[in-house]
Amino acid sequence: MEAIPLNEQPPIFRTGNEGNPPAADTFQQNPQQKYLEAKPKALGVTQITLSVFLISMSLAGLATDMDEVKLSMTRISELIGSLIVIIAGTVAVAAQNLHLPTLRACFAMQVLACIVSLINIANTSMEQIGNFVHYDCRWNSTDNDLEQSPLCQKIMTVSLLYHGEGILIDMAVAAICVTLAAYCCKVMNC
């Protein structure tokens, strides 16, 4: 096998963007299209759907917690927060037209919705901690000995799962908000 002299090697074509992914050229040509890569319609509809589910959970909680003002206030804050997230999801879907003021509104609403979701996570967590402190599943038996009530333990387990579900949904909503806000920010160059 003979070595090919350096001056006889085939020419190497350089495009000027070695090391950059192909999407980098697309983004530099049309930055508004970057927002559409996030699938804002799907994420916005998901935000709306999860918020409707959270509203149903809050209404169920309000129906059962009417005697406790503190818990009712937590439920009302969850309702208001879910309505804000629904508005944010609607604006995210509307921002598909890539109109800059709509994208700015989408960014602002997603940041607000993320803050509201984090507040709801904190409220639900504190409510759950309060439930464990407030309700003790022990009762006096005939032997003056404290025993665990099996029914109370089951109720507390259901309560834990119920609140855990709410926290998980709020975390998903917060993640969607951060994703949409990041894509809006990329388009607006903030």
Account of the protein in words:
This protein is mostly helical and 190 residues long. It has one domain (34-138, 146-188). The chain has helices at 22-29, 33-36, 40-64, 69-94, 100-134, 150-188; strands at 138-140, 146-148. Strands 1-2 form a two-stranded antiparallel sheet. Strand 1 (138-140) and strand 2 (146-148) form a beta hairpin. Helix 3 (40-64) runs antiparallel to helix 4 and helix 4 (69-94) runs antiparallel to helix 5 (100-134). The longest helix has 39 residues, at 150-188. The chain is elongated. The termini are far apart. 24% of the residues are buried. Residues 23-27 have low confidence and may be disordered. Residues 1-22 are annotated as: Disordered. Keywords: Membrane, Transmembrane, Transmembrane helix. This is Membrane-spanning 4-domains subfamily A member 4A-like. The chain crosses the membrane at residues 42-64, 76-95, 102-122, 166-185.
Structural class: mainly alpha
The tally of strands reads 2
| Main pleated-sheet profile | 2 strands, antiparallel
Question: Gap between N and C termini, in Å?
Answer: 57 Å
Indicate the proportion of strand residues: under 5%
Q: What's the shape?
A: elongated
Strand order of the largest sheet: 1-2
Number of domains: 1
How confident overall, as mean pLDDT?
77
Low-confidence segments, ≥5 residues, pLDDT <50? 23-27
Overall radius of gyration: 26 Å
What proportion of the residues is helical, as a percent range? Answer: over 70%
What is the ordering of alpha helices and beta strands? HHHHHEEH
* Contiguous helical run count: 6
